[in-house]
């Protein structure tokens, strides 16, 4: 269209020359020969390399590896367009590193992982990688026990563009991390887990030149995590802090963070200016399995811009600390509390959250004995609440669920696990929570499979995930934006298909239990439900009925 006959002829000529095709005159009337040539035509040859690389971006590592075997061109395009690479970092790989990074010369994200039973690559290999990967921005090290402080220091000098570093189960220590913080001025994320070189008496870590660029710090399972105190306090633009299962008392560190934020705000008001990198930028704090008390919670309440707070299995925290956080952190959107069944956090703290945090969108309560007093207040005042998980509480029953059903108009996802509710609560959900799209029920022995069937009939589009039966509305629910991982609640990640674990609950033992509990009528309904599920999920259902 819009093309001159001469241009079309030239294009056809060049196309035929490129693929070695014979002209139509040379083919004569041999239609079979012509069909054979057309069948062998490479239709991708006209696709530019950039477009082919763009297509490769949508493929997984396995599919990309298979595509690279198609032809030399695809091999070449896959090499220069692959930015993410994961290697088995055993010592034997060192001899292959030159050829690997000659082919993949555009790698920006690299993962080096070595199993416990193998010997990992050493300092020389890591330095060689840093020389060949000049564009490296992300590095993940797992089990690389042969890398020392010296090797990491040299790597840091050669990788000044590094933005994210995650290391776990390695043997280097404070000297290596200080080198990274001193040389990698663009570092934004640092994650450290089970570093053997971080022990009692280790030198202080940070802050370094990276203190002005760091936005996320994650510390997991460290013997002496307090050695990161200078870095945590000195990172002025820090937005997310996660401290998980680290030994020692953390109240002092949190107090220093709170004082820094308070002083930063005072200086901001005194100087009457607005800085893009102000000291009040902390928006997410995750505290799990720590020795931290209400003193620490009161300290972080000075970080008034917090939107995401996890208080998980910290037995010394009580209502007092939560009230302090609620009164000061009024922008809170996500709150996860695992009370570890210590009964120190309950209605008093949650009522304060309902009163002062109207923007709450996600609430997870595990081992917290809340009642209709606090849940009713949250349902009434937190009109934006979309995701709610109630797990392992002996005080959350039919009354509490009825209160939620009547008042939570925006609720989209609900998880109830190990709570003493019955079919009465399911009946309340049948007419309540008009925005609800997904509900998960686990270990709620008072809820029958028939109640799930009834709820499905009442609300056909609702995805229902239960122990005894799986009922879905014909579509898969989307994953929650704030997926709940750390507290052991997995309702945002649940899909509507039957899994092996769910199938195993449909064994003869479960059938016998239902017969004894609900009688023959219940057992017949369960069999029918199971057969429907079997027919719809034949590939994934392995249970024996």
TrEMBL record:
Domain of life: Eukaryota
PANTHER family associated with the record: F-BOX PROTEIN SKIP2, PARTNER OF PAIRED, ISOFORM B-RELATED
InterPro entries named in the record: F-box-like_dom_sf, F-box_dom, FBXL15_LRR, Leu-rich_rpt, Leu-rich_rpt_Cys-con_subtyp, LRR_dom_sf
Upper classification of the organism: Eukaryota, Viridiplantae, Streptophyta, Embryophyta, Tracheophyta
Domain F-box: 47-87
This protein's GO CC annotations: SCF ubiquitin ligase complex
UniProt cross-references to Gene3D superfamilies, sorted A to Z: 1.20.1280.50, Ribonuclease Inhibitor
GO terms classed as biological process: SCF-dependent proteasomal ubiquitin-dependent protein catabolic process
SMART domains linked: FBOX, LRR_CC
Name recorded for this polypeptide: F-box domain-containing protein
